[in-house]
Design the sequence.
């Protein structure tokens, strides 16, 4: 879902990493994946099995931490009364991945279907811990989803999850502050820095935004938005990490290095008491984050009602706008499932049926991944009272369309994110050298990847 | 402090009384300051928790942290916490009580029986056993959580209360403590006379040793109670179904939920987490206040010379 992955307790992330290490050492050779040996010829029969499964009795367990999703699941059960789905919240993000991997390793106790964030999906896919849905005909769903969402579930030519929600980045800003200082929302990063100086001049204690030194996902997204692609995986085991040479990374370093040096952006761990107070008081004038943010703002600082608005992300080159994703989840099927066809059918319905996606958006508060909703005027043209009546979904929907394709996460991103805080995070927090810190992050990622049996390169 | 002062008085005699009094006053002033600092250190977080648990979610991030918000909303928050998500909080509360009472009670009982046996019976392998217990203390429980999971998964008790209860029953530290305690608290002469009077070993344990060991038992009980009540990592690993979560894991789940952007359709869970945390420490405070008496008497018993 809309998580900032690295915000999880460092301990759980560490354990997840330790586990993934242990598990990867065991390799994918456990033979759990029933679909491995099946050739393309088997595809039609398997997709037929998926269709049939909807009318046969089945019981599925679904691990997810999306609150309110029970309502969408209830709609599924009403429509297909033969299938019973147990929704279990087994923990969030790294917590859940730790459990999922231990259960897969143990050979029992894993659910049939599980929520997995995009950044973690390659890890599960390459170690064959999730079912390749291509074998069950999931490719047919491609056109139903926004390209930015679908691209994130295709790994090595296979489809390893059905996109559930997305987090195209946008700039949430305090309209009251911008209006008072007679500022327009910045269209480029240069304008962003100018606006930041004016906000600083107005009150030296205020900042245009904050950056979370522990949030690897947030920085990944900003690098993505700067045109970077520092992580590349080809085949099953060739990984390239170019945090020290990628032009997009350099662009981000120049931009944020200056903003941090001039004290225009404050390093501040997100989601803390202090941070929310800053968000509420107007200490931070913007929040650069995923499209899932409105719910968080409305729930946590309800007293700022009417003061917020949304604008597209500032650009490096206004002529060629680029955007990135921040957060978002897919729904994957676990090979341990005793009824994979039913599990696939459920995952597909849940995330692509028009009734389901409408419910996910309205009843579970997820930002959609499907075109049917993103292009729907009824979705786009709703005025949001909290945002002073702005039709924010128009901005966010366009932000989704502008996402730059081609970004890849590491096949051990969960670990990489867990050590971000000790390397790049230190430099962000203490005003250190970002380039050197990114190099040391790269070195640790490279060393870890090699230990895991991947072939690493830095070019 | 008093003990130190008394010892000083008796050894140095009356001649030094006057000057001693002056140094004592100076000492107690600095001690008082240190104590006040420690007091603030211990109480401020609790006060912060109380103050913030009584705020409305609107006031939570818009009013001063170390004081109460505009309106006193504690009871409404408690009400909301107890009823949120079909009253899952009460279920977690019950689970924690179950794990703590059965786990800590069992651990204290086993440690008492085992410690007594190690201290008072001479049998082959006694030293080896004791060395293994000492080794057991030095391995942190967190390190054993994953192996424990794999073991339990083989037996098929993962995701059941047993997976939390069984490890809670084993307290190497408690066993060590009870062995040391039993060695001194139960005089061999009493055991011998009881044997001469014809009492069986079980009867000696029940009627004589257990009573002498009671303060030690309570100490171990308190230690295990706190450890089980606060246990987080093991239940996090071995439990998947929220219905079996203890408070620690449950509250963390709420926290993760609040920190993840939207938490569904309009739930202000930060207030629930704070109120839930406040409620979750109340029983521990009560347990300490009630059992403190036994603990103190236990410490005093040790100082009496046999």
Sequence:
């Amino acid at each position: 879902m809309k998580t900032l992955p690295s915000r999880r307790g460092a301990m759980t992330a560490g354990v997840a990493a330790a586990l993934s290490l242990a598990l990867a050492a065991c390799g994918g050779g456990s033979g759990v994946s029933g679909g491995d040996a099946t050739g393309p010829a088997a595809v039609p029969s398997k997709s037929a099995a998926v269709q049939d499964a909807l009318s046969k009795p089945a019981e599925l367990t679904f691990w997810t931490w999306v609150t309110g999703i029970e309502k969408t699941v209830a709609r599924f059960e009403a429509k297909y009364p033969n299938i019973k789905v147990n929704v279990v919240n087994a923990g969030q993000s790294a917590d859940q991945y730790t459990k999922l991997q231990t259960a897969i390793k143990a050979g029992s106790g894993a659910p049939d279907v599980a929520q997995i964030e995009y950044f973690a999906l390659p890890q599960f896919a390459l170690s064959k811990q999730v079912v390749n849905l291509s074998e069950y005909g999931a490719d047919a769903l491609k056109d139903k989803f926004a390209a930015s969402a679908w691209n994130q579930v295709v790994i090595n030519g296979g489809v390893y999850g059905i996109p559930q929600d997305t987090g195209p980045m946008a700039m949430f800003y305090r309209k009251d502050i911008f209006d008072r200082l007679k500022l327009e929302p910045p269209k480029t990063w240069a304008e962003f820095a100018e606006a930041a100086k004016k906000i600083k001049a107005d009150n030296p204690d205020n900042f245009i935004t904050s950056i979370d030194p522990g949030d690897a996902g947030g920085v990944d997204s900003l690098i993505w938005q700067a045109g970077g692609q520092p992580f590349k995986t080809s085949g099953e085991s060739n990984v390239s990490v170019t945090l020290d040479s990628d032009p997009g990374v350099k662009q981000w370093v120049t931009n944020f290095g200056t903003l941090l040096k001039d004290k225009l952006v404050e390093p501040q761990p997100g989601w803390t008491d202090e941070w929310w107070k800053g968000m509420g008081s107007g200490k931070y004038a913007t929040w650069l984050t995923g499209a899932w943010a409105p719910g968080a703002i409305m729930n946590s600082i309800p007293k700022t009602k009417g003061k917020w608005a949304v604008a597209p992300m500032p650009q490096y080159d206004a002529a060629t706008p680029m955007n990135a994703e921040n957060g978002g989840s897919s729904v994957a099927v676990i090979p341990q499932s005793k009824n994979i066809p039913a599990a696939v059918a459920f995952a597909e319905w849940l995330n692509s049926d028009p009734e389901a996606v409408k419910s996910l958006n309205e009843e579970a508060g997820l930002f959609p991944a499907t075109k049917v909703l993103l292009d729907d005027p009824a979705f786009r043209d709703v005025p949001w009272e909290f945002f002073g009546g702005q039709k924010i979904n128009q901005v966010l929907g366009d932000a989704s369309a502008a996402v730059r394709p081609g970004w890849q996460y590491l096949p051990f991103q969960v670990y990489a994110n867990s050590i971000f805080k000790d390397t790049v995070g230190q430099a962000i927090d203490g005003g250190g050298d970002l380039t050197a810190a990114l190099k040391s992050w790269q070195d640790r990622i490279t060393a870890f990847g090699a230990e895991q049996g991947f072939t690493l390169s830095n070019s | 402090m008093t003990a130190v002062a008394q010892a000083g008085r008796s050894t140095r005699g009356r001649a030094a009384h006057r000057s001693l009094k002056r140094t004592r006053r100076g000492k107690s002033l600095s001690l008082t300051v240190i104590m006040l600092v420690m007091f603030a250190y211990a109480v401020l977080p609790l006060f912060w928790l109380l103050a913030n648990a009584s705020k409305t979610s609107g006031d939570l991030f818009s009013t001063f942290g170390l004081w109460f918000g505009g309106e006193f909303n504690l009871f409404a928050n408690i009400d909301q916490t107890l009823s949120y998500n079909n009253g899952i909080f009460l279920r977690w509360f019950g689970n924690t009580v179950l794990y703590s009472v059965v786990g800590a009670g069992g651990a204290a009982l086993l440690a008492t029986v085992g410690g007594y046996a190690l201290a008072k019976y001479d049998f082959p392998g006694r030293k080896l056993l004791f060395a293994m217990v000492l080794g057991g203390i030095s391995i942190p429980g967190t390190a054993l959580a994953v192996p424990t999971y794999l073991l339990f998964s083989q037996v098929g008790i993962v995701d059941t209360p047993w997976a939390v209860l069984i490890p809670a029953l084993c307290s190497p530290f408690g066993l060590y403590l009870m062995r040391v305690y039993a060695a001194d608290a139960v005089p061999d002469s009493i055991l011998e006379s009881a044997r001469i009077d014809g009492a069986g070993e079980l009867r000696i344990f029940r009627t004589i040793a257990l009573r002498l060991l009671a303060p030690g038992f309570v100490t171990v009980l308190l230690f295990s109670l706190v450890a089980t009540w606060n246990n987080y990592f093991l239940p996090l690993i071995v439990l998947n179904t929220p219905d079996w979560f203890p408070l620690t894991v449950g509250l963390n789940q709420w926290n993760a939920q609040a920190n993840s952007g939207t938490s569904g359709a309009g739930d202000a869970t930060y207030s629930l987490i704070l109120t839930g945390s406040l409620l979750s420490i109340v029983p521990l405070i009560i347990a300490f206040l009630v059992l403190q008496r036994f603990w103190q008497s236990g410490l005093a018993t040790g100082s009496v010379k046999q």
Observations:
- DSSP finds 13 helices and no strands in chain B.
- Chain B has two domains: 2-44, 74-303.
